[in-house]
Write a structure and sequence with these properties.
Elements lengths: L1 H15 L7 H7 L3 H9 L5 H30 L3 E6 L11 E3 H6 L4 E6 L2 E9 L2 E5 L5 E5 L4 E5 L2 E6 L8 H14 L1 H7 L6 H17 L15 H19 L5 H8 L2 H12 L6 H28 L1 H22 L3 H4 L2 H23 L6
Antiparallel strand pairs: 1-3, 1-8, 2-7, 3-4, 4-5, 5-6, 7-8
Helix pairs in contact: 1-2, 1-4, 2-6, 3-4, 3-12, 6-13, 6-15, 8-13, 9-10, 9-12, 12-13
Length: 370
Amino acid sequence: MQWILDILRGAVIGISNIIPGVSGGTMAVSMGIYDRLIHDITHLFKRFKQSVVDVLPIAIGVVVGIFAFSALIGSLLGVSVQWDADLSAAKAPFTAQRLTATDLINADCTNVSLTNGGETAVLAFADGNNWTVTYPDGTVKTLVGSTLKFKRVNDSYQLELSPVRPPLTKMPTIFAFIGLILGGLGVIFRRVKLSEFKASGWILFAAFFALVVVLPLLSAPRAQTADASFGNLLLMVLLGMIASATMVIPGVSGSMILMLLGYYEAVISALNSLRGGDMASLALLAPFAVGIVLGLFLIAKLISTLLEKAPTLTFAAILGLVLASPVALLIQNSECFQVATAGNWLVSLLCLAGGFAVAWILSKLDTKKD
């Protein structure tokens, strides 16, 4: 029974990593297994068999959550839709099943009209490896050219991009994860009482709360590119360490941090290239993976030490990070409110209650305590 529950907890953590603004660490807190995971990671070599047995079902759940639900969550959030691309400006008709941004540049097709239902947008070459997408409301987004993949459908081509307006399913999905976050707060309150925070605890709480709330308000810089030079390989190790730190630290989204650093598109592009069979992308992904492993152990050891030496102050910071996560999610997805209907609000509130109940039940049923 414990294995099944841990797989379910892991699945929730895995799904949360798909959603920008949601932290896997926050979900681990909400599921009531944060301390246990930190303990298993930091004691992996001292009690290898026990740690592996304990972490394995959670890891299985994370993998299942990411791969089984990524398409569904992406659809619910409106991460991307298929746009019809007008490539008639090319100097010669395209015939390949798949096209890249390089193919368009070589054919002098650097300005492409996009349509999706009644929505329109314009894709245009900017400079280097950068392209821009201009939406009807004047919003301009910068994309890395290597992430643009055109797929032939019948006699035309389609490009996967974000929609102009968020779908009505986005707000209920966001509210469900807010419910999951709030439903796990009891785990923190069972460990520490607010009366124990004192002045230093409340200062830490406020500082970390403000940190998470401010992050969505920052403007992401122009997307950066990364080649296989020695300097970029070291950079990818550092980025991997930063990304893994956000997996361990509650309230901080790894995808959001990579966006703010300008390397989110570069990492996603490398992953997409690997899925397409381009093994050369491993030159960037391998050092990134090394950084993830290094960061995971280093940050987990730091958190473990802090939980042991200063539990009250540590949980004050964690509470600030976790409580700020719903606020950050609402700020980051404020466009949902512009299209929400009364029915949409009702469904969203039901999803909030459902998420709260799931987190509360799973955290209460955890039978493994350190």
